[in-house]
Amino acid sequence: MSNNSQSMSFNAGQAKGQTQEKASNLMDKASNAAQSAKESLSESGQQLKQKAQGATEAIKEKTGLNK
User: Fold this and answer.
1) Is this model's pTM higher than 0.70 or not?
2) Could you identify which of 15, 19, 25, 66 might form a hypothetical disulfide with 60, taking C-beta atoms 3.0 to 4.6 angstroms apart as the criterion?
């Protein structure tokens, strides 16, 4: 193989490796963002559940149903 051909092949290999690394980094970032969103929604759901339970208890207290 000529020196020029080897150089082009090497450069193509480097470009492919860099592209794969960038794609991997993007996938990691997307996965982290999805996990963060999932955790945020879970926390919001827990807060909503606690508020609903508090409201239910308040209604029971007002109506005397907690006895």
Assistant:
1) no
2) 66
